[in-house]
Amino acid sequence: MSDFQVDTRRVRANFGHAATGYEQHDALQREVQQLLLERLDFYLQQPERVIDVGAGTGRGSALLKKRYAKAQVIAVDAALSMLRVAKSHAGWLKPFMRLCGDATALPLPDHSVDILHSNLCFQWIDDLAGLFGECVRVLKPGGMLVFSTFGPDTLRELRAAWASVDQHSHVGRFLDMHDLGDAMINAGLRDPVLDVDRFTLTYSEPKALLRELKGLGATHADRGRERGLTGKQHFQRMLAAYEAMRVDGRIPATWEVVTAHAWGPAPGQSRRAKGGGEIASFSVDSLRGTRRR
Fold first, then answer.
1. What residues form the membrane-spanning segments (predicted)?
2. At 234, is the pLDDT very low, low, confident or very high (cuts 50, 70, 90)?
3. What is the pLDDT of residue 26?
């Protein structure tokens, strides 16, 4: 598993600054959203509460409300600016709630969520045990977790261009599908199913990609990044290395997208513990019995 650490304050600030212009750059996010909606076909019940974690500007939340008109849909995001923009998608006919909170500390009661949906948010969280543990906490038994995230091949061209210049960290690193699957099982999630798709977007020049990343708030947030300003010559050498990768006159950028779903465990289902072994938990009420004298 990767040893990188995400600077969560930097992530929150990046997305906060990007909120007003985000939807000018979110074509990939909308495409991946359709993959998640297809996975929801496996959920055969009528949900009472659906949450959209890392909701951003609320496009996905609005689609969830359209699909589940009778459910309470809650858009959750750590960036308050994003939630302010999301208000524009919460129409008066099919409104959804907006709630500021972190994916690893959701401000919701235990076992209160039927569907937990998250589109391209989980890659900004490096504490997978905490993340999926929180998903298990809020999901009802048999509730559905459906999410997408980026895999390690994402932005491989940009990473290679920087690697030709120096060995510092310039591009975010993302976890492999197998690491995600192991973390889901360890947390106690049932029957996880994960798939990988690769998208190649093309640009007129490398700077166009960099502008898009900034517009999405998806700029580098690894704590190990270089804190100083990158010199102009250094930057130009990276651009020249990326220019050499042109295909049919366009600059390619690969995005490896992992989509997944799993189910909330039944009460008392065991989960793997750190260091080996398994832990099972039960409510106090379920342990009460008749005491003989």
1. none
2. confident
3. 94
Per the prediction, the chain carries an average pLDDT of 88
> CA 164, CA 160: separation in Å to the nearest integer?
6
Question: Domain for residue 281, yes or no?
Answer: no
Distance separating alpha carbons of residues 20 and 86, to the nearest angstrom: 10
Q: Which domain holds residue 72?
A: 8-270
Q: How far is it, in rounded angstroms, from Cα 76 to Cα 56?
A: 8
Spatial contact of 112 and 142, defined as CB atoms under 8 Å apart: no
Place of tokens 């990188």: 4
CB 42 within 8 A of CB 146: no
Residue 168 lies in a domain: yes
User: What is the widest separation between alpha-carbon atoms in the chain?
Assistant: 86
Length in residues, the chain: 293
Torsion over CA: 39, 41, 44, 47 (sign): positive
**What CATH number should be reported for the domain holding residue 77?**
3.40.50.150
Statement: residue 266 has pLDDT above 70: yes
pLDDT the model gives residue 2 = 46
**229/122 Cα distance (integer angstroms):** 28
CA neighbours closer than 13 Å in the CB half-sphere of residue 87: 7
